[in-house]
Amino acid sequence: MPTGNSFDSRSTLSVGGKAYTIYKLAAVEREFSQAKRLPYALKILLENLLRNEGVSLAVRKADVEALARWQPKDEPTVEIAFTPARVLMQDFTGVPCVVDLAAMRDAMKSLGGDPSKINPLVPVELVIDHSVQVDEYGTARAFADNVALEYERNDERYTFLRWGQKAFNNFQVVPPGTGICHQVNLEYLARSVFVDGHGTAYPDTLVGTDSHTTMVNGLGVLGWGVGGIEAEAAMLGQPVSMLIPQVIGFKLSGRLAAGATATDLVLTVTQMLRKKGVVGKFVEFFGPGLADLPLADRATIANMAPEYGATCGIFPVDAETVRYLEQTGRPAELVALVEAYYKEQGLFHDANTPDAVYTDTLELDLAKVVPSMAGPARPQDRVALADMKQAFADALPKLKTGTKKPTAVPLPLAAPVGEAIGGGPAGAFGAKTAPDIAPGSLADGSVVIAAITSCTNTSNPSVMVAAGVLAQKAVARGLSTKPWVKTSLAPGSQVVTDYLTAGGLIDDLNKLHFNVVGYGCTTCIGNSGPLPEAVSKEIADGGLVVSAVLSGNRNFEGRVHPEVRANYLASPPLVVAYALAGRVDIDWATEPIGTDADGRAVMLADIWPTHEEVAAVIDRSITREAFERIYGRVYEGDAQWKALQVPTGALYSWSATSTYIANPPYFRTMGVVPSAVHEIEGARVLALLGDSITTDHISPAGNIKKDSAAGKYLLEHGVAQKDFNQYGARRGHHEVMMRGTFANVRLRNRLVPPREDGSVVEGGFTRHLPGDEVVSIFDAAMAYQKDGVPLVIIGGKEYGSGSSRDWAAKGTLLLGVKVVLAESYERIHRSNLVGMGVLPLQFKTGESAASHGLTGEEVYDFGGLVAGLEKNFDGPARELTVTATRPDGTTVAFKAVCRIDTPQEVQYYKNGGILPYVLRQLNAAK
Fold it and tell me: Which residues form the Aconitase/3-isopropylmalate dehydratase large subunit alpha/beta/alpha domain (predicted)?
């Protein structure tokens, strides 16, 4: 295999009678002694550069040297090219990726090139986990009914994915009903050490089209979430351009105290790191606390790297890693290679491993972690369980804002009573056995959703078993869940059901209506399904602030359910506890959770599981055999999967009548060479937004309302409302998705005036300037496009935080937005904007729309774009001049920082995005 091998690092490692080629870090450390103290994650990157030097034109000897000389306190300025070993996808983001690949094949043919060049060059694994919704719940038929509805809604998407699996090389699909991609990755897909076709062994690395790809960092595997756009480029052989990051060390010591769970730990870590500020940085965990920290707990912490804002949250490989690989059924040959490889490279952590040098450090004594929750709207807003009652009371006045139905704007904030979210049945318990809820049962603080959901926690046996033990104790005391609570159990893999069954806990969970509803993300991503009609009616009639309690990783406003304003993250046993209590405003120390059959008060402490009880169940119920048996059939799928009628051929036959899959417009006018870039002038503001605008606010998600722009489009194309499905399922159709961009029911656009009573209008509305008429954002965007007016989005801090949703950038582009101007960005969304050819600008530190007196009614000119591109936005060229002309003709001018961060991104922008760039590169290659 050709390589530059400037450091003479190529060597041989023999394990189990086999010889592997490796690239030794010691070769660099001999020349650069400081490289010995590099953080673990940077050593993985160093090996990546060593191995790819000369193989990729993007990797030079100077890049290896730059990383070896890393100075922890320096601001990132040096660009390197990271070449991941593989790509992981879930189906919401995976479908548009495959759509784009199919469209690129068509475009390649149109350019006169070879369509077969459009093919994944690294292994790509897509796990279908985002499409199952909680329609049926609380019954034995919940799983079967939800799966049947999933296939009914997604037949066309799944058929398309199966076509892709046949049409493209290196592309595997894990069928529905198997598990959540990150848990399947952790338990099965991750190699830890990758061996290519040339016999070269190297660390398993990846990028994934979901921000929680970082979960596998708990296994010592370096990877993170990227937008689908960037992932497609990686699939097609493009290295990921990045700046050598700063690395924050997080030292762990001690052990968790009785009563504390891994969820409590991760919420504490998330709060600490958000306060520290680690956006764009790596976080690496070290210290004596690692010795007693199970790998499942590490994965829980690593999973929530997006919530604390880091690119990754990684743990080193050690004896616990090896134990986990053995337990989860990895081949003995691989386990032996992993241990030998990491020891040979000096990457195996033990008590004698010296601490690395970090940019900065934090420290946490695990013994000080207390039971906690996070909410009501952000994962970093941790609340000690003991303070929950008062915390909810303090949050209630703000949550009450906006509960009134709109009067100035006709679009409803939530699905009408009885209207299914996503087109499923309207009631709970499948609507067939709707719960008996007496009028007046609900009040502010009532829990209406209690969901054991998300790979964050369902991958962790300690908290899942704890939920089962608590349920068992509750059933023994005669307790039951409140009838207005929509309960669900959605494991991240079938292994969870196996060990809950083997441990004798599944029956008690079922008795409390925590029946398995599906193997997928469900409530964590907003696939919570409709509330019972009676519950929806009480919420609407009373203007109530009701709550969801979920074991997920995100609780942003409008995400979990449009009728639920207070959303709290909690451990699985607490989810069960709150379902029993039926309300969040409970003081667990003084108020009983209920009464037993003898009328005695039952306190939470009476049924809370001990560490010993949990450990006993884990020891007898989790086996290597279960992992081998369940993952031995991982690609088979059920009868419905096998029965799909799959087309053949290298080019996809697009259907003009499909409302799920459509050939996107990105390449229709594309030439062999890119058009010249021009200055952006005469732009209007489409939306003036505040802080913490997430990709949930931007990207279409959740239910499609019949009177929304997307709903009207579907009705016009013969789709009945009951068949609308949800936005996530229609990500392969740009006409639907662009109509749902910026249509979130909780979006607050400051261009829209308040109602007559002073309440804030929420939803996807704006003004078509210079007039005062309030219209949908989509309608305004189309009117501006007709008039040739470029558009701007103005935002505050942390713009684009949340899931790595490529449609947050794709939809922005298709609406005609040329510039986003914000105070700060989350990493993935900024990259996605550049990847779609949208210019991300950033207010200078301390400046904002408010500081410049901007109202959004101005006309904007952006000066210096062409000159900046010529100089790769280096030095003074990094700042562009923004001139805003007010309605009265006066102007305000200021400098803004261009956030096209690397020379490679400059090339993407010049080409109109990353995909046109890759397509032109492949077309030009001989």
Answer: 77-582
